[in-house]
Design goal:
mainly alpha, 2 helices, binds zinc ion
């Protein structure tokens, strides 16, 4: 019986250690969940501000790009995808379509 008692005591000790590990893991999980919520909140806050800025810049860039193309076109160069940058003689239906001049 002495051996069996010792075996049971060892199992009890191991169970105690395991229980402590489970407890600390639970705390760690709680900490990670809180951190996750915090990070998600930060991500939402950042992306809202950034989205507005990106949209604003995108329309600025688009406007500027279009103005540059208009300038290039008025100086007699193709701005269409087929002859882009080549000197233009007369008018080009592709350029006109691209700049919506028709
Ligand atoms: Zn063209």
């Amino acid at each position: 019986m002495g051996q069996l008692n010792q075996a049971i005591t060892e199992v009890e000790e191991n169970l105690g250690k395991l229980l402590n590990e489970v407890k600390s893991l639970k705390q760690y999980v709680e900490y990670l969940e809180e951190e996750n919520i915090k990070l998600k909140r930060q991500l939402c806050a950042v992306s809202e501000a950034d989205t507005a800025r990106v949209q604003q810049n995108a329309s600025k860039i688009q406007k500027e790009a279009h103005e540059n193309l208009e300038k290039l076109y008025s100086q007699g160069f193709h701005v269409c995808h087929i002859y882009f940058g080549e000197p233009m003689e007369g008018s080009c239906i592709f350029c006109n379509a691209f700049l919506r001049k028709d």
